[in-house]
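User: I'll paste a sequence; please echo it back and then give the predicted structure.

Assistant: Echoing your sequence first, then the prediction.
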Amino acid sequence: MTKSDFNKRSKILTKKMARDFKKSIKHSIFDEIFTLYIFRPIAFIFLKMFYKIPITPNQISLLSILVGIVAGVFFSFGTYFWFVIGGVCFGIATVLDCLDGMIARLKNMGTYIGRIIDGISDYIASVAIHIGFALGIVNNPQLNFPINPWILMALAAVFNIMHSIMVDYYKSEFMYYALGKGFSREEEKQRFREELKKMKNQKLKLLDKIIVYTYLGYTHLQTSSSVITKNKYDRETYYKKNRVLIQFWFLIGPNMHIVLMMIAAFLYRPMIYFYYVIGFGNLLMVVLWIIQVRLNKKLLLNKE
């Protein structure tokens, strides 16, 4: 093979890899910076390695849960070494969490239930990791916390969920109103209600029914906690006015929390995580919510 042929084949392979990577993600604007440039590229390497293996996205979601639980166990030992190992495992769990959706999109294996399982896996792993993180602080008196670690962790967990709900909601609204993709939260709730009706007479799908009921409760919490309505916006205007704001929302997104906990673990400074989530994160959430509400009201008035 000549050097020229090698270069041509390399370019073709590079272009194909770029196309596959683009196809495996929703849209670059919906990924937090650490997800887009760190977690997803690593996940894509695994995707290409195991693409032909008959493994389903749901199986990868379950593996992500398992690795997340293991990370929580490692955190609970409390020493610097185990905090670092726990942080690494948390990163692996996050890569797997990216991988399940990427495989589903690339292989066209996405399902309603799969989407919900992906979300539930995040919460299960997060609970295990938060508990393990708190246990690790308690088990190492040298960390010398001024406040009860369980109180701090309980607050961080609650605010973590609040941040995730808000970010997920406005991300979905941006996808719908700015890009014309997917459905609004109200429309999505209706679609899942219809899916649930179809499943009512299927006795063997009890677990699926429970999962759908859980998801409907989650989306109801999102829509009831926001002032976004069914009103329609001008797509181009909505995109221009919100494309920067959505990036600021990602500063309190789930993967930003993950990165902050990993940094706190690697530096053996757990308070970094609490300062960010309980302090800066909440302040930013309130400011962004006020800006978002005013902006969307203004967009509606201008349209009228």
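Residues 5 and 11 are 10 Å apart (CA to CA). The two ends are 65 Å apart (CA to CA).
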